[in-house]
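May I ask you to review the protein record following this short note?
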Amino acid sequence: MPTVGSVHSWDISVGVDGPGVRFVAFLAGCPLRCRYCHSPDTWYRRAGRAHTVDELMAEIERYRRFISIAGGGVTLSGGEPLLQPRFTGDVLRRCHDLGLHTALDTSGFLGARADDALLDATDLVLLDVKSWDPATYRMVTRTGSVAPTVRFGRRLAERGTPIWIRFVLVPGLTDAVENVAGVAAFAAGLATVQRIEVLPFHRLGVHKYAELGLTFPLAATEPPDPELLARVRGQFAERGLAVY
């Protein structure tokens, strides 16, 4: 029986979801409810459309030559792709067999679901570290703990898997000096971290909440100012990390 996954959408991005021009598939379903999430339309698996691996690969094949020449590849994002580990693993392996660079965009919260075969077919992990302080992590995600992400990150480093750490900077929520310092120390302890992406909070997804009849939790929060961005980026740079 073919493997079937719930796919919300796909798009082409440049230099955002991994190196080069990427085919990015957004899988439906996520266990977290991050207060700054700009894609509430991907929270539930029912929000996607059923695709077999062959069907998604047929879409990827249409762009294969273009993304290969442009030095890019394929990124599986979400939602949370590890909510559908079998489908995610099968797509990554098929892409890898075609010689395409593969990336997995994940919070690491479900990292234990990624078996070795899946990670063998993953050239890069975009690891979203929501926060370090336990209370802040729960406030950001409304559930859970950073511990699974920590275990997953260390496992990736031990395997030699390249990592890009992503950290969303939200004034008044994730910006505490101690919180940032914890994420920076964790990242600095992983030998395969290639870069840190400090992502300024934005409100570009507010319209999606309105369309779904939901209230955006951070509607009154402003994006970080240049001084705050500089301070946080500096905290990572002080650890010898390449900051973007």
Summary: Helices lie at 53-69, 85-97, 116-120, 134-141, 147-159, 177-188, 206-212, 226-237. Residues 2 and 156 are 29 Å apart (CA to CA). DSSP finds eight helices and eight strands in the chain.
